[in-house]
Amino acid sequence: MATSDYSFRLKDSLLGAQMLFVAFGALVLVPLLTGLDPNVALFTAGAGTLLFQAITRGKVPVFLASSFAFIAPIIYGVQTWGIPATMSGLAAAGLLYVALAALIRLRGAGILHRVLPPVVTGPVIMVIGLILAKVAVFMAVGKTGDGSADLFPRDVALMVSLTALAATILASLLGRGFVRLVPILCGIAAGYAVSLAMGIVHFDAVGAAPWLTIPAFTLPELNWEAILFIVPVAIAPAIEHFGDVLAIGSITGRDYVKDPGIHRTMLGDGLATTLASCLGGPPNTTYSEVTGAVALTKVYNPAIMTWAAITAIALAFVGKLGALLGTIPSPVMGGIMILLFGAITVVGMNTLVRAGEDLMQPRNLAIVAVILVFGIGGMSFNIGEVTLAGIGLSGIVGVALNLALPAGRAAK
Asked: How far is CA 376 from CA 275, 345, 380, in A?
């Protein structure tokens, strides 16, 4: 019978490398989409996983890596304030997890559901998916993310992006076993193959890159606009964290909500995100792909994730790997983003559907409507020198409305 106790053994190193391979496509996708360094993302995923294991006493077999929930705010933040300022917002988002962990320890997990019910988290997740939908389309047709310039001929870009999109969908629908766990990796591979055939891939940077190099770490710079814009984004993945912990617990047969405790897993997730952001990497989150691989292999030993983390850190120092990832043409990423941003939106919709609440009830209608229109429509407010807008504004307004609006009248 598979054990779920921590046991660090050299013979498990290949199993750990396999777990990293499962996460690899999604892990590097986030920095490639947002303009961050994939080598830094590899390092911070490994370091974040080790920190999480230390805080949770090596009891939970999960791997932490780049969070999709933050893709849209990172893209906007990098374009608006630059990478160092954006990192300050992401680091603060990690500290929100820490605050929530403290609140859970004091008041119990139920407090989150009272402050952040599905009627708030659902539409906020939808805004995350929709706010930069144009970026996906622009990249898919061969333009820059803001649509201001053409990078590739439209017909070539569409062939590449739609191939990547189709391969990702087919892998998730028809893939068996291991293939079904890595649909994004399959999509990138298919799009890259077409790009090679079209002659739009150039390897000059790979040849010039050193084999061994120090990742291009970036320190954060305090920016209150970036902080207020990004911190509320953490609302959605914080709620999803519960689902991830319950999922891995159902696979291993252990109740991680009680031991090591959901407050510890939340604390580990938050500090891993803050650590990553302080080094210039994307925020971390528990990876469902790796959880699926744990279910498939039936290897529950948390030390497997230690080996995955060590492998990620080692690969972070391979300069040619980052350069090779940089050769992936933007239309490949555009095709993946079409599905990715749409999927995030669907997760938000599903959050509302599963809650079973009547959205036409005046209170619910008001909360959902204001969140969606403020976020997607581009509403903003100036607070002194700071501008509050986008996802951040949607999250803050949603929480405020939920706390302020009186409960609706019961149906007769």
From this structure: 30, 12, 11
pTM to 2 decimals?
A: 0.87
Q: What is the pLDDT of residue 412?
A: 43
Instruction: Please state the three-class secondary structure of 264-304 as a single string.
Output: HHHHHHHHHHHHHHHCCCCCEEECHHHHHHHHHHCCCCCHH
> Is the Cβ–Cβ distance between 399 and 113 less than 8 Å?
no
Which tokens sit at 60? 């939970």
3 state SS for 331-372: HHHHHHHHHHHHHHHHHHHHHHHHHCCCCCCHHHHHHHHHHH
Cα 392 to the chain's mean position, in Å? 16
Q: What is the largest CA-CA distance in the chain?
A: 73
Asked if 368 and 208 touch (Cβ cutoff 8 Å), the reply is: no
Among candidate residues 323, 285, 325, 92, the one with its CA nearest the CA of residue 204: 323
Tokens of 383: 């607070």
User: Crossing angle for the helix pair 330-355 and 118-130, nearest 10 degrees?
Assistant: 160
Count of helices and strands (H, E) across the chain = 20, 4
Distance CA 130, CA 345 (A): 7
Helices (H), 175-287: 178-181, 183-198, 204-208, 224-230, 235-252, 262-278
Other Cβ atoms less than 10 A from the Cβ of 25: the count is: 20
Which letter, b or e, does each residue of 190-203 get, where b requires 16 or more Cβ atoms within 10 Å of its Cβ? bbbbbbeebebeee
Summarize pLDDT for 341-385 with one digit per residue, the tens. Answer: 888 889 889 989 988 889 999 999 999 999 999 999 989 988 777
The C-alpha atoms of residue 86 and residue 78 are separated, in whole angstroms, by 6
Residues 6+ apart with CB under 8 A from 99: none
Give the pair of three-digit tokens for residue 116.
């952040």
Backbone angles phi, psi at 254, to 5 degrees: -120, 150
- Give the C-alpha separation, 63 to 70, whole Å: 18
Going by the DSSP 8-state scheme, the letter that residue 389 receives in this structure is E
Looking at residue 69, what is its pLDDT? 84
Share of the chain above pLDDT 70, in %: 98
